[in-house]
Amino acid sequence: MSDNRTGPSADPNTVTQTDSQPDTQTHAQPDTANAAPQQAAPQQQAAPQQTAPADPQPTARETHTALFRAHATARLRGDTAEALKLAAQIGEAQRISHHVFLIALFTQAVYDEFGDRPDPDDLAALTERLHRRHRHQPQRRNPSHSDSDPGPALAAATAPAPGFAAAPITGFATVSDTDTATASANAPGFVAIRAEALVRAVCGESQWFNEIPLAEQPGYMWAVMNELIDPSITDTELAQRFSDADELRTEIFRTAGEAITAATGTEESA
Amino acid sequence: MTPEQRQREHLTYLITGDLTAAADLREQFADHSRTSAAEHVRAAAAVCLEFRFGPGAGRGAGAIDRDELAAFMSEIRQSNHDIKPSLDLLAVEAAVRSLYGEPHLVESPGIDVFGDAFASAFYTALRHQVRAHPWLAANPGYVVDRARQLMMFWLLG
């Protein structure tokens, strides 16, 4: 889940097995990503100079992306254990980057399903489905457990409704990954209109982002994606989704960069 | 003063905007009376919202006019932008839509229809309508009577 201080314990092959980037199989060590790339896999630098040059080391961004994709794959396919393990490797330093990745993946899923101008009646139907599916999810009880796995804590503190334990991957409170540190002590359980608001937020009503605590947004985005994407999604389909989302993510950064530049220019000229 | 009279008086204070008197009266409420007061507010909000979104609020009305809702929410946002703590706008939208064919929007665990969050949301909608239609504030008895009729409908079907 969101234990960001868990040590680097993942099997790199597991982390990268679903990644579409060809060079990640050999050297992905997600938790070394903060180190300089040349320090990540020194054994490969010892290759004889006269042979063909080794594949370039992945950048930190590529390594993070591999981890994010592996985690997303587990979540979308309903592999709770794997999702929890991988989520634990997403460190505090990658939190914002992961959030942007999620928004891009989420936006792509929304556009695929509804286009960029969803019919309000279709959204209302989605909201009601989400409510029916998640209505029994308990209120968070241990919002301050940033050092521990809130999944077991929640499981111990609450009495799951029938069906809840059987399908935890679609759960909101138990597998929300990044929502432990700042959640309000009075945070409610699943409030379906907040999921709908995030859909609308990526479709032109961005003001709704401000109405939902940042820490709660991943849980709602996963709930929507799990509703829209069949868990039997193939590797090819996943690769396409990731590729499309990556383009969108690049566009988000480019647009944000231009906005910052424009704002800075305005300030400097003022 | 009977419990019913106390509830009528409390709701009248809210409709006319005498929040101090309403708060003083609430001090005398037992827990079940607070729950009843919240339901009075929900019913009164339904009565007042019919002036904006059409009849049938809370008693079988169909889906709300989305454009009108967007305009309503924009007005709410504008008139409450400096309120601290900030208003839960999604709760307000959920409260309004719950009266027009989407009752599940106020059924979430943790914030039920009688909880503070939604009671506040229904009151926000009520207050906005009262300000937009001064006649309502000038005739609180009408709103209270119709609200209690609606509550009877909810109770008996």
Helix content of chain B: 55-70%
Rounded average pLDDT of chain B: 90
Taken from the alpha-carbon principal axes, the silhouette of chain B is globular
Instruction: Please report the distance between the alpha carbons of the first and last residues of chain A.
Output: 46 Å
Biggest sheet descriptor of chain A: none
Portion in beta strands of chain A: under 5%
Radius of gyration of chain A: 20 Å
Strand content of chain B: under 5%
Shape of chain A: globular
The number of E-state strands of chain A comes to 0
Flag low-confidence runs of chain A: 1-48, 139-187
How many strands, which pairing sense, and closed or not: the largest β-sheet of chain B? Answer: none
In DSSP terms (H or I, runs of 4 or more residues), the helix count of chain B works out at 8
Descriptive report:
The complex is a heterodimer of chains A (270) and B (157). By secondary structure, chain A is mostly helical. Chain A has helices at 12-16, 60-77, 80-87, 95-114, 120-134, 150-157, 192-201, 217-228, 235-269. In chain A, α2 runs antiparallel to α3 and α4 (95-114) runs parallel beside α8 (217-228). Chain A starts with 11 loop residues before the first helix and ends with a helix. Chain B is mainly alpha-helical. Chain B is 69% helix and 0% strand. Chain B contains eight helices and no strands. Chain B has helices at 3-16, 19-26, 31-53, 66-79, 89-98, 116-132, 134-138, 140-156. The longest helix of chain B has 23 residues, at 31-53. Chain B starts with a helix and ends with a helix. The mean pLDDT of chain B is 90. The chains are: A mainly alpha (270), B mainly alpha (157).
Give a quick rundown of the structure.
The complex is a heterodimer of chains A (270) and B (157). By secondary structure, chain A is mostly helical.
